[in-house]
# Entry
Amino acid sequence: MNGRSTIRISLAAALLGSGAAHAETVSSSFAVNARIETGCAFGAGGGAGTGSDLGVLDFGPVTLPDLASARDVASSVDAGSIVLTCTQGAMVSISLDYGVNGGSSSVRYLALDGQTLGYQLYRDAARSQVWGTESDGLAMTIDDFPASTQTYTVYARLLARDSMPAAGTYTDTVTVTLSY
# Structure
């Protein structure tokens, strides 16, 4: 019987070995995709200048002698500058409305208890290009947004006046709209 057991084991091993030698493999593949949609967000994704609160653009304390001529200020990060991150290559339009106090492309208004102070916002340091809306052609357009976060300075001018208004903090709220 020992002879038969040995033959069976040898025959089984030969059959198993011969099956492995004749095994075939079949391959196929699948694609892996990531679709990046065009988009923008306020801020840089971390640190200073992030989020939708762009801070306060402040003319600072103003006295009567200061009001005799225009007072210019420029924004900074977290104090009125517009910090954006957008898809590289996107066409982006940045619009500023005319505030909540009845402003226009000619003048915006800071208000306190029915009294107003005129001011304006600009895209350039020379204060020659009013920053307004797309509908009036005064929005800033970026034809090819770069790969990195960008900071856009808002240049402001408090308009001169010959009389001193009531003391207090005059305010306005300007809405920034991104179109892409």
Remarks:
- The first helix runs from residue 2 to 21.
- The mean pLDDT is 87.
